[in-house]
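Bug report (template v2)

What were you trying to do?
Predict the complex of my protein with adenosine monophosphate.

What happened?
Run completed; filing so the output is reviewed.

Input:
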Amino acid sequence: MATGGRGALSLLQNYGSESEGDSGYTSEDEKKRKTESSSPHERKKKKRRAEEDEEMAVDHPSSSSSSPSASSPCPPPPPPPPSSSALETMMMESHNLSLSQNHHLSMDATSHIPPATRTIPLPRELLQGGEEHIDDPSQHQGRIRSIAHERGNWASIVYVPLHLGVFAASFASFIASLVAACQDYNLILTPSSDLHISLTRTLILRLHWIQPLTEDLRAKLSKFSRFSLWLHGLSVYVNEERTRTFLGIRVCHGRNELDDIVSDIDSCIAEYRLPRFYKDGSYHVSVAWCTGDVSESLRRLLPQLENICSQYFSVESEMRTFNVDSLLFRTGNRIHTIHLKADH
Ligand code: AMP
């Protein structure tokens, strides 16, 4: 039986480890700090970064939340509603954001922060200032970015991670057979590297929302009990920009529990005027994807793909069921684990 646990999204993959204790420092960054020039301009920049870092403190469940720089008593007032084009831009799907994995992280000027406080590393372009990010699709399997990099925006998502455990190899060969069947019809799909069930759209957060929202989500969601879900049936999904098509396995049992969780997530994020989950939300695990909207062609292949799916699940019947013990809230490079209650 596989259990919920880790399932790093391709969203922001490699942006950081799952550890909530990850400070984000790298030896590269250390070196950089040591050799940094101390011209007046640099000193000014350093001071500003130090101020920004103080703003970036987020809660760290395993450490005391009483750290002065981590405390932000109340959420900021909701921002003005974004213009419709900005909102559209925000409503990108998670996979496109994996492009941010190409951003190298760097931190600076944090030596004044108490050790219990963890900070989110800033993207290098934010530290350097003034440089425009030039996207290189060759670095991310040709995926098309749905949103331009914008300073101070933190791509975030709440999701159920799926652990495959000992079934990882057999599941990979099952996905490979789905991909091969599609290839026979000239549909070239790529297996998904991170299996998860999204419970939000990709949310674009302002830096100062992160801490209060994380606290809100933790307070609300940790009240839910653990549950199991059951996967059954394939569906085709297209992102909102119609730049990517996904083959997903739907959640069959467990939808009521997910509905309750999503309803609470939606009420948390509504305070920030962030987009709610799909009204006709179809919980699923995307197992393969390709660029462009090939939904029509892929849907035509569904009966054939369903056969492969049934065969696989008849052999590996345990792979249909997943225990959901925790939810993950990923924001920028940081993953917060929200454990569900063990009792009922
Ligand atoms: P995910 O694997 O969770 O990232 O989902 C893949 C894509 O499915 C996302 O880009 C969503 O925008 C898209 N999608 C389209 N319709 C739905 C729906 N009804 N429920 C959930 N996701 C959907």
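What did the reviewer find?
Confidence is low (pLDDT under 50) at residues 1-8, 10-45, 48-137. Residues 93-95, 198, 237-240, 246, 278, 280-282, 286 surround adenosine monophosphate (CB under 6 Å).
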